[in-house]
């Protein structure tokens, strides 16, 4: 239950940029370390001094109002922002298992295999269900049919989709419902055996039943993968995540265990946001 505090009404919270005071989540091992990260699109700085350790084999949710830098940070984790000419890190570092992912010599293709991504809108390829899942394997040079068959079934099972599609693998992925298409995209990401799965508002276009299936899938997947999810749905963050990071205007305001963030946040800005005072 969210704690309610008596305080004056406010339409815009005061920004407190004190990274050393951001609460640290209790974690056993950091899979991703973000250190003093500044990021800009051209002359416009969108992330300011972000310090964050993301735990392994857990779900970490990024919450905050639109334009606060959540998706930008998510896309930094597999260098998707490299595809934007004006985008650049101006200070700081991102390390995955201790390795700076922006260091010279890092294989970006391999990085994106290790760090899969599921987008806000399901984007199946104009191919069969089977070929959607097999696509990344073939790009990686796997040609043996038995290996591909095994990986397709394993990935569809991991995405809780196998029983629904096993008899129509050669039907177009476009023939699936919206929720099934999103789980197909998750299966496609899992097929190349990533270590980390990034999800950018994966349920925003889904109905409540499909959303519940994807959320249950997320809870199951954390047993094998490190998951980072961007969501505007705070109830979803509360249901799915182990840890939550709250952002405002490109700054990390607070990071802690989800239960604490929603019941007893340490920062006033966090409390104002989760109780609907702004955002």
Description:
- The protein is α/β, with parallel strands linked by helices and 279 residues long.
- The protein has ten helices and ten strands.
- The strands form two sheets. It has a six-stranded mixed β-sheet with strand order 6-7-8-3-9-10, with helices on both faces. It has a four-stranded antiparallel β-sheet with strand order 2-1-4-5, with helices on one face.
- Strand 4 and strand 5 form a beta hairpin.
- Helix 3 packs across helix 4, helix 3 packs parallel to helix 6 and helix 4 crosses helix 6.
- The protein starts with 29 loop residues before the first strand and ends in a 5-residue tail after the last helix.
- The N terminus is likely disordered.
Straight-line N-to-C gap: 20 Å
Give the class from helix and strand content and strand pairing: alpha/beta
Q: Which band does the percent of strand residues land in?
A: 15-25%
Largest β sheet strand count, sense and barrel closure: 6 strands, mixed
Q: How many β-strand stretches?
A: 10
Shape: globular
Please, what is the oligomeric state? single chain
- Helix proportion: 25-40%
Q: Please give the count of helices.
A: 10
- Order of H and E elements: EEEHEEHEHHHHEHEHEEHH
- How confident overall, as mean pLDDT? 89
Please mark out the parts with pLDDT under 50 across 5 or more consecutive residues, or reply none. 1-27
Radius of gyration: 19 Å
Strand adjacency order, main sheet: 6-7-8-3-9-10
């Amino acid at each position: 239950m969210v704690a309610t505090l008596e305080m004056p009404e406010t339409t815009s919270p005061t920004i407190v940029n004190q990274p050393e005071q951001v609460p640290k989540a209790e974690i056993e091992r950091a899979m991703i370390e973000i250190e003093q990260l500044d990021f800009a699109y051209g002359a416009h700085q969108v992330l300011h001094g972000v310090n964050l350790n993301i735990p392994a084999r857990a779900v970490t949710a990024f919450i905050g109002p639109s334009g606060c830098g959540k998706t930008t940070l998510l896309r930094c984790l597999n260098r998707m922002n490299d595809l934007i000419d004006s985008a650049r890190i101006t200070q700081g570092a991102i390390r995955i298992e201790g390795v700076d992912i922006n260091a010279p010599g890092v294989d970006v293709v391999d990085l994106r295999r290790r760090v899969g991504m599921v987008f806000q809108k399901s984007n199946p390829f104009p191919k069969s269900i089977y070929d959607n899942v097999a696509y990344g394997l073939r790009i990686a040079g796997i040609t043996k049919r038995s290996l591909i068959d095994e990986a397709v079934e394993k990935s569809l099972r991991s995405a809780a989709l196998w029983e629904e599609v096993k008899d129509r693998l050669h039907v177009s992925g476009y023939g699936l419902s919206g929720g099934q298409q999103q789980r197909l995209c998750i299966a496609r990401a899992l097929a190349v055996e990533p270590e980390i799965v990034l999800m950018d508002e994966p349920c925003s276009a889904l109905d409540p039943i499909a959303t519940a299936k994807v959320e249950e899938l997320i809870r199951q997947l954390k047993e094998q993968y490190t998951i980072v999810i961007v969501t505007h749905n705070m109830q979803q963050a509360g249901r799915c995540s182990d840890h939550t990071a709250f952002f405002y205007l490109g700054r990390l305001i607070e990071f802690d265990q989800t239960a604490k963030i929603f019941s007893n946040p340490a920062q006033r800005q966090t409390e104002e946001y989760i109780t609907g005072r702004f955002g």
